[in-house]
Design brief:
Shape: elongated
Pfam families: zf-B_box (PF00643), zf-C3HC4_4 (PF15227)
CATH architecture of the largest domain: 2-Layer Sandwich
Strand content: 5-15%
InterPro entries: TRIM/RBCC (IPR050143), Znf_B-box (IPR000315), Znf_RING (IPR001841), Znf_RING/FYVE/PHD (IPR013083), Znf_RING_CS (IPR017907)
GO molecular function, one term: zinc ion binding
Number of helices: 6
Number of strands: 8
Strand order of the largest sheet: 2-1-5
Radius of gyration: 26 Å
Mean pLDDT: 81
Low-confidence stretches: 89-97
Largest sheet: 3 strands, antiparallel
Keywords: Metal-binding, Zinc, Zinc-finger
Distance between the termini: 71 Å
CATH superfamily of the largest domain: Classic Zinc Finger
Number of domains: 2
Amino acid sequence: MALAGALERLQEEAICPICLEYMSEPVSIDCGHNFCRGCIAKHCQEKGLWADGPFSCPQCRASCHRSGFRPNRQLANIVESIRQLGLGGGPGPELELGTPLCPQHDERLKLFCEEDEEPICVVCRESLLHRPHTVYPIEEAAHVYKVKLQKSLENLSKEVEEVKKHESAERMKTQECKAGACLNS
């Protein structure tokens, strides 16, 4: 069990927070977060940063510079080892076919916007509408909502039990009243 948890955490570290796939040519940026070289370069390009101007880290919003991209060879080795183990990265091809697409960008809906309570794609996350919002990988959001739903169901079950107890007590009182009325007649 502990091994499975450790492997899961290792897989999570190897997944790029932008594309949600195993990192390709991982680089560390000034704040210490890691991304695919292509993903973080595209992020900078979309922000209109062609030179070494500062940009915000997509994860922590810290100010970083393109010159601060450092190849993370250790992480690249870990990613390669995970691939060789055949653990899969993010959703596999068989899951990608059934994954809904964003109606605006035709990208897979891999993220969940907490404020809007809706699935979004990685392009939507960078839009002005969602940028200030709290966004999670959709699997993590599903787990959070599953836990909330289970708690709600537990509370509802307790309320149903209370109603049943109250109903039973009322039935007993009604029977006692009927029995008392019969004796008084």
